[in-house]
Design brief:
It is built from 6 helices and 10 strands, in the order E-E-E-E-H-H-H-H-E-E-H-E-E-E-E-H. It is α+β, with helices and mostly antiparallel strands. The protein has 2 domains: 44 residues, no CATH class; 111 residues, Nuclear Transport Factor 2, Chain: A, CATH 3.10.450.50. Helix 3 runs antiparallel to helix 4. This is Ester cyclase.
Length: 189
């Protein structure tokens, strides 16, 4: 019996044609050649093929970034930050290699300025090893920040952040977030 080509209609990826091997026939998978017997023992792993593996990697990367926002801005969780951030993490906005300890220090500093800081992810897109986020942060300006005295007013700022993920850890960040503009507006208003 020979395998056949069929179309996949799963919503997790675009409509693709892929080869579905017949029972006992070897099939090429990202991990190398796998027999039909391997697929029978572990059907979830082999059921959808490479296209599903790629989309599930993208979803895992997005889940990691989403969890990172929760562990930093929304609910400071140092243990989660240790698990999420690679030791070699480089923050391009800060121009420094921070690692998990540097990330925790940065967040603790922000939490002193905005004790009730909360972020909402408005858009998230993943491609390859990158995750792009458009987000909105809200908090009350309770302490001086980069020369701007505390206004004790609620502030809101938005921005775009790009993350690079490798081996299940956050490795790099590029951010464009206008915190100072929001603080100046609050102080003037």
């Amino acid at each position: 019996m020979r395998g056949q080509f069929d179309e996949c209609d799963l919503p997790c990826h675009r409509r693709v044609r892929r080869y579905r091997p017949a029972s006992g026939e070897a099939a090429c998978r990202p991990g190398g050649l796998q027999s039909g017997a391997d697929a029978a023992r572990d059907p979830e792993r082999y059921a959808f093929g490479w296209e599903f593996s790629m989309s599930s990697t993208l979803e895992r990367n997005k889940d990691l970034v989403r969890a990172h926002y929760e562990a930093t801005a929304n609910n400071f969780d140092p243990v989660a930050i240790d698990a999420q951030v690679g030791d070699d993490f480089f923050d391009h906005a800060a121009g420094a290699r921070l690692g998990p300890e540097g990330v925790k220090q940065h967040i603790q500093g922000l939490k002193k300025v905005f004790p009730d800081l909360h972020v909402v992810i408005e858009d998230m897109v993943a491609e390859g090893d990158r995750v792009a986020v458009r987000a909105r942060w809200r908090g009350t300006h309770k302490a001086d920040f980069r020369g701007i005295p505390a206004s004790h007013k609620p502030v809101e700022f938005t921005g775009m952040v790009f993350w690079r993920i490798a081996d299940g850890k956050i490795r790099e960040r590029w951010a464009s977030v206008d915190v100072l503009g929001a603080l100046r507006d609050a102080a003037a208003g």
